[in-house]
C-alpha cells in the first residue's frame, strides 16, 4: 500500500500527527530519524504567521527535515490562509495541511478548526484559497462532524477533493466529543468511500494492533499517530515495520537511550534557548520516564530541576541504566 499526494509518494503510510506544543522541530527531527511517512508541524495561525509573530513562525521552522514535513495552517480568512500557504511553501514545506479538526475552545471560538464543519461553504473558500496559492500538495485534517447530529465529513471530503485537496485525514470523533470515548474507526469508511484521494485514519492508534484494526474498520490508506509517539519517537517506524512497510527500527535501550534523550534535550535547549527550553522539555522527559518506569521521587527531581547540566547528569539514573547496573 502506498500513499501518493499528486506527484509525491510517501515512504510509508504511517504519519506523525500535528500536536500543539509537541511536534516542534526537535521532536519532528527525532521521529524522522527513526522513520515516518510524513511529519506534521504544530498548528500555525495563518494571519499571525504572515504578520511575522516570532513565536508562530518558530512553529513552522523546518530545519533539515523539510523534505518530509507538512506544515499545518489554521484560520478563518481565505486571504491570510493563502498568504501563509505561499510563505511556508517558499520556506520549503513539502506539504501544506489545513486544520479543520482542532476542538479547542479558543480555536473554535475564532471560527477556525472544527468550527468550519458547521459552515462547509466557508470552509471550501479557505480550501480553494490555499490550493490556489500552494505549489505543493495540500491536505485536509478534520473530524467526523461537529456532533452526532452533524456527521458531514463525507460531504466535506467530496467537496474538498473537487477543490484540489490531495489527501484527507479523519480523526474518528466529533468535535463535541473532544478526546472522550474511543475513536470510531468504522465511521471513517464513509469518507473513504466518498473520495478517490488517499484517506488516513487517526485517533487512538498507539501500536501495531490498533493500527491494523483501524485500517481494517476504516478501509483507509494509512494511519496517523499522535499520542502514541510521546516518549517513543521510534513508534511510527515500529508500527510501519509491523505492517510490512519498512525494516524494524533499532529501538534504543540502556546507554543508547540515555544518549538519545540527552540529544533531544539539548536540541530543545538550542531551539528555544535555555530558559524556555528547560520548561518545554519537561513534558518530553516526563513521557520518557513514564515509559522507563522511573520512581516518582526521582521523576519529580528531574522535572523540577532548573539547571540543564544537572538534568543531563540525572538522566542515566532516571531512565534506569544506573539502577540496572547496580
UniProtKB/TrEMBL annotation:
CDD domains: DUS_like_FMN. Keywords: Flavoprotein, FMN, NADP, Nucleotide-binding, Oxidoreductase, RNA-binding, tRNA processing, tRNA-binding. Residues 15-303 form the DUS-like FMN-binding domain. SUPFAM superfamilies: FMN-linked oxidoreductases. It catalyses: a 5,6-dihydrouridine in tRNA + NAD(+) = a uridine in tRNA + NADH + H(+); a 5,6-dihydrouridine in tRNA + NADP(+) = a uridine in tRNA + NADPH + H(+). The active site is at 102 (proton donor). Its EC number is 1.3.1.-. The keyword Nucleotide-binding applies. This is tRNA-dihydrouridine synthase.
Amino acid at each position: 500500500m502506498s500513499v501518493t499526494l499528486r506527484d509525491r509518494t510517501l515512504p510509508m503510510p504511517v504519519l506523525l500527527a500535528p500536536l500543539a506544543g509537541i511536534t516542534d522541530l526537535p521532536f519532528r527531527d527525532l521521529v524522522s530519524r527513526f522513520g515516518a511517512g510524513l511529519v506534521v508541524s504544530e498548528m500555525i495561525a495563518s494571519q499571525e504567521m504572515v504578520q511575522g509573530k516570532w513565536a508562530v513562525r518558530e512553529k513552522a521552522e523546518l530545519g533539515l527535515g523539510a523534505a518530509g514535513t507538512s506544515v499545518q495552517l489554521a484560520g478563518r480568512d481565505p486571504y491570510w490562509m493563502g498568504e501563509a500557504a505561499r510563505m511556508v511553501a517558499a520556506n520549503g514545506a513539502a506539504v501544506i495541511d489545513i486544520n479543520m479538526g482542532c476542538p479547542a475552545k479558543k480555536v473554535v471560538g475564532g471560527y477556525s478548526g472544527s468550527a468550519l464543519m458547521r459552515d462547509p461553504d466557508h470552509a471550501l473558500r479557505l480550501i480553494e484559497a490555499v490550493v490556489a496559492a500552494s505549489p505543493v500538495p495540500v491536505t485536509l485534517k478534520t473530524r467526523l462532524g461537529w456532533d452526532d447530529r452533524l456527521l458531514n465529513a463525507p460531504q466535506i471530503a467530496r467537496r474538498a477533493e473537487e477543490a484540489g485537496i490531495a489527501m484527507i485525514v479523519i480523526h474518528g470523533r466529533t468535535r463535541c466529543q473532544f478526546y472522550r470515548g474511543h475513536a470510531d474507526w468504522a465511521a471513517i469508511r464513509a469518507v473513504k468511500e466518498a473520495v478517490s484521494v488517499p484517506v488516513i485514519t487517526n485517533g487512538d492508534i498507539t501500536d501495531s494492533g490498533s493500527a491494523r484494526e483501524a485500517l481494517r474498520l476504516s478501509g483507509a490508506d494509512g494511519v496517523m499517530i499522535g499520542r502514541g509517539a510521546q516518549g517513543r519517537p521510534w513508534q511510527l517506524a515500529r508500527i510501519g515495520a509491523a505492517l510490512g512497510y519498512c525494516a524494524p527500527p533499532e529501538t534504543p535501550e540502556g546507554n543508547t537511550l540515555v544518549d538519545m534523550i540527552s540529544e533531544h534535550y539539548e536540541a530543545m535547549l538550542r531551539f528555544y534557548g535555555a530558559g524556555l527550553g528547560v520548561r518545554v522539555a519537561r513534558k518530553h522527559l516526563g513521557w520518557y520516564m513514564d515509559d522507563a518506569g522511573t520512581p516518582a521521587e526521582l521523576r519529580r527531581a528531574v522535572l523540577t530541576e532548573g539547571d540543564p547540566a544537572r538534568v543531563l547528569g540525572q538522566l542515566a539514573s532516571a531512565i534506569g541504566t544506573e539502577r540496572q547496573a547496580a
